[in-house]
Each structure stands twice: as C-alpha cells, then as structure tokens.
Amino acid sequence: MLTLKNIILPVLTLMLTGTSLQAQQKPNVVVIIVDDLGYADMSFLPQAPTDIKHYKTPGFDRLFATGTYFENAYATSPICSPSRAGILTGSYQQRWGNYWYGDGKFPNNKVTIPEMLSSNGYATAKYGKTHLSGWEKKVPTMHGFDEYLGFMHHTWDYIRLSQKDVDAYKKKKEFKDFGCQVIGPLVKAEGQGNEELKPVSYENSFTTDIFTDEAINFIKRDKGGKPFYLHLSYNAVHMPTYVVEETWAKKVGARYVPWDRNAAKWEYPYWDPAQEPHKTFHKKWGHMGEYDSEGRRCYLANLFALDYGISRLLDALEKSGQRENTMIIFTSDNGGTVNTYSNNAPLRGSKYMLGEGGIRVPVIISMPGTLPQNIVNKSALVSGMDIMPTIAELTGIAAPEDIDGISMLPVLKQEKKQHHEWVAWAKNENSWVLRRGKWKLSKNAGWGHKGFTIGENSEVLPGKKMTYPSGINLFNLETDIGETTNVADQNPEVVQEMLALHKEWASRMIPRYMKKRKNSKKNGKKN
C-alpha cells in the first residue's frame, strides 16, 4: 500500500544523499606555508646546490611533479608577519599600515580565507605558526578556523615544548628572562569565536612532526561530509635551526645533542643561563655575530624533516582518496635568511631585504585531477595575495571585493600567460621597490646584512657583507636576475613610468603606523 510515509522517506533520503555527495564533490584546499625557505633549496630546481642535489627533496619534488612551479612568484613582504597578513586577506597589508613587525592595526572587518570558506560550508583547521600583529582577532578561531594548534609568535623551539622545560630554566639562579628564545607548551583553541588558548605540553616531540600529525589526523577525520580547508604553517626552517631531530641530523652528518632538562649543565645548542646571558648566546649562535661551521648541515636536517612531512601529507591524501580533489598551494612566507644558512641562488639578498632574495619565493600549486602537471611557469608575475582569489574561483565562492589579488586559475589552466602587470613592496613610504614585466625599480631600499659562503660539502665559510643599493636603481631581471647592474640612466622613460606607478600605488596605501615609543614624551618627540 502506497502511503505518505513511503513517499516522503525515499525523497528525503535522496535529498540528503544528494546534498552530501554535492558537498563531497566540492574541492578541498590545503595551504602550506613554510618559513624562511631558501629559493634554491629544492632538488627539482636547476639552481639547487650540490648538497640538495645529493640528498634530494622527494616531498617537494613530488609536489612539483603533480603541479605548477612559478618562477616569478613573490611574497608581499620580506618578513613573516606582514606577508602572512597579505596571504590571509588577498590584499596589500600596507592598506592598513602594516609594513614591518608590530605595526599597522589589522582591520576587524577584513574577510580572511577561512572566514570566506567557513561561511560556505567548509570545515577549517590551522596548525603551526600564527604571527599577526596588532589585531584583536589574531587567534585563528577568531578569524574563521574551527580549530587551531600551534604557537602565537614569530618563532618557537623545535624540541623544548613542555612546561617542565620552562620550569627547568626558571630554576637556574642566573636566569632572568628568555630574551629571543621561545620555549614551552604549544597552545590550542577549539570552536569559532573562542579566543581562549589552552597550553598543550609535548615531550620527546618535534614541532615539524607534531604539525604534520595534526594535519593528517584532520584529513582522516569525519567532517560531516563537509569539504575542508587545511592551513599548515610550519616553523621550519626558521631559526633556531641549530636545534635538530636525531634522524635527520644523522642523515646529513649534523651535530646532535639530546635535550636533558635535568642535566647540571646544558651544552650547545641549548642555552645555559649559568654559562652566558641569552643576549650573548643569541648573538653568537643566532648567526648574527659568528658563523657556525655546521650551520648549513643543521639547516639541512630541519629542511629534510620538513620535506618528509610534505611526503607524509601527500600519502595521507592519496590513501584517503582525496588527492585529486584537493588543491595544494605551497609557498614560503619570505625569502631564505642567511642567518640560518639557506641558499637563495641566483638571487641577491636575504630575508629582511627588498632584493629578490628577500621577496621572491617558491610557489607550487598542485591539483592533479584538474590542473596540468610538471609545469614550470616562467612568465606569470604572481603574489601571495593571489592565493585567496584563486581559492575563491576554484570553489565557486565570490571573493571579497576589496582585495588586490587576482585568481591564478586561468594561468594554472594555461588559458592565459600573463598575470599581474606590476606589483609593489615597501618598508615605509620612502623605501620601496616595484616590479613591472622584466623591470624592477628600487628607491632608498638599501640594506646591509652579514653573509656567509656555503662550501661544496655544506661547510660554512666567512663571507662578504650582503648589501642592497640605496638611491634610485633600475634592474633588468630578464638579463640580470642577480641585480648587479643599475641601468636607470640608460632607461629614463622606464624610470619615470614606474615612479608614477608607485605614486599611484602609494596613494591607495596608508603611511606606516608605528606604536609610540615608551620614552617619546620624555624626549619631547613624536613617533
């Protein structure tokens, strides 16, 4: 007998099943941001140094083999906090005065990638580094993430991740403060709108492994049929890279000293307050005063731990049957830093600098079920702020109207060759660079940074001071990627055109916002 119940139940089941299938068919998105990665330090690259070619980076290579590598890709800043703000919002962070660490008040009404996706039915999670200055919503669960585990700082120790480690330092009678060293429990937050951070201690663990484990668990977990957005923000290979994990230290022959918080004396690479003040330790072994003959090997140990994490993540996606329906976007927050012995060849400069070595970064985008594979894109000028609109177009969601980024999807699909006509960077209103096509114009972007020379066998030797020129400079990156020859005098029209472009760009930004110094009133000065 045909009843109303017999009719309604099958229809409801079909509707619910159809909804679930539709949700599952939406693409997943994984954004991987690594820290201070050297531009040359992946073995698939032709400029990869000897040590990288010898040991290989199978995780990075595997990602490239299934995607597109962009040769002309840039961060929006040569340092981490502003760059990450640019990625998160698809915008020039200078729009709210964020040029350097700790300046610029992040607008609370600025829509983020996870907010955009969460409001359209995505499960969202973030693991790793969060470093967003001057923002009331800086805790990830306050700007669109369902859950978070990581640290809220520019850096963190790789191994000393327990409250017991913090207490061990405080027991030392010579201890005053941690200075630039940051150790102790990680923090977690759960539930959107919850800003409470709870400490999570780990013993005998390594941050690179912890963040990879959390990401894999999230991929495996039942998310109620929702597509997912995973933001994996490693602290590798940011200093302190002299703290290494045993397996990878053995692989590259790097020194390895196990951490024993109960030892009477702590040997290098661990700071002991009884031996010297932290300022002295950091100046020496933070690679700002003396070079470390084994510094490159320590960097490599951390790099290969990171590369293995990428391999494990790819394995998890493949085993779960979600790899072809998942877009992976991989990048670094800024260029590699000479302080940790990264290799930025053939670029000039390092992190902190507006030379190519400070702002040009590796970008790989992979979605083997949808996009071409094993592609090197040599023509498109792309930026970290393009990640948000690319995700929006892929997922069929309208991107916020007030962004500066442009979707890379047409370039990825090889429907067009060019992307941005030009992009700009600035440390403040008077120190900036702008790139248009093959040309790069710099004004008052001078910077000096102590450098090192990396030998054929990864040994570290004294090097020359790394500099970037002041004044007006024009470089032809097509023929001079190392930015060695100023051709401004030979191309006055190009200089004037690019000066006009910068003037127009700067008119849309706001001046650098800086917190007043504590002694500003005392000195009778305005800051």
From TrEMBL:
Under the heading InterPro entries, the entry gives:
Alkaline_phosphatase_core_sf, Sulfatase, Sulfatase_CS, Sulfatase_N
Q: Which UniProt keywords apply?
A: Calcium, Hydrolase, Metal-binding, Signal
Q: Where is the signal peptide?
A: 1-23
Q: Give every Sulfatase N-terminal domain span.
A: 27-397
Q: Which Pfam families match?
A: Sulfatase
- State the similarity comment: Belongs to the sulfatase family.
Q: What is this protein called?
A: N-acetylgalactosamine 6-sulfatase (GALNS)
